[in-house]
């Protein structure tokens, strides 16, 4: 089927908007994050405090975290491992256009969907596998259970 002039304009418009959103939202990201060693960092209910040297010392912070309440004291590497083990979903592109539009990417409007998907996926992993599982363990779990997943044609 031959594309009409209006369809070509819509496709070009969609590509331009996608490129604009990529520049607007992707190129302004900082590549390095700095944390204050004086404040705790909370990641999914686990409190990391990089300043505390003595793990036996009870540490009270403004956030209400204490060593007894899952605080990991003075270990940046443990925080890094925990942080990079989280599920991260990003923009999709070049999928079949949504009926009634020329959109073939979710750049600029799919953030809410991805956030919900990441929350759901992380919640399921925590529920079924627990917190300490690595990405390889999760991948193995997914591959093992692949035959039991819902498939659509």
Automatic annotation (TrEMBL):
Gene Ontology CC annotations of this record: cytoplasm
Domain of life of the source: Eukaryota
Keyword Transport carried by entry: yes
Pfam families associated with the record: Peptidase_C54
Intracellular or extracellular location(s): Cytoplasm
GO molecular function: cysteine-type endopeptidase activity; protein-phosphatidylethanolamide deconjugating activity
Gene Ontology biological process terms from the UniProt entry: aggrephagy; autophagosome assembly; mitophagy; piecemeal microautophagy of the nucleus; protein processing; protein transport
UniProt record similarity statement: Belongs to the peptidase C54 family.
Listed name of the protein: Cysteine protease
Source organism: Rousettus aegyptiacus (Egyptian fruit bat)
UniProt lineage: Eukaryota, Metazoa, Chordata, Craniata, Vertebrata
């Amino acid at each position: 089927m031959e594309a009409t002039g209006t369809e070509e304009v819509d496709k070009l418009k969609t590509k331009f908007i996608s490129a604009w959103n990529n520049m607007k939202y992707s190129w302004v990201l900082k590549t390095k994050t700095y944390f204050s060693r004086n404040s705790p960092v909370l990641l999914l209910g686990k409190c990391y405090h990089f300043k505390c040297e003595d793990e036996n010392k009870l540490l009270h912070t403004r956030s209400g975290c204490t060593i007894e309440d899952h605080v990991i004291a003075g270990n940046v590497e443990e925080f890094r491992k925990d942080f990079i083990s989280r599920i991260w979903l990003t923009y999709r592109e070049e999928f079949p256009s949504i009926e009634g539009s020329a959109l073939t990417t979710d750049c600029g409007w799919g953030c809410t969907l991805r956030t919900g998907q990441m929350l759901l996926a992380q919640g399921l992993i925590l529920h079924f596998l627990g917190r300490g599982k690595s990405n390889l363990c999760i991948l193995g779990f997914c591959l093992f259970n692949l035959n039991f997943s819902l498939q659509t044609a």
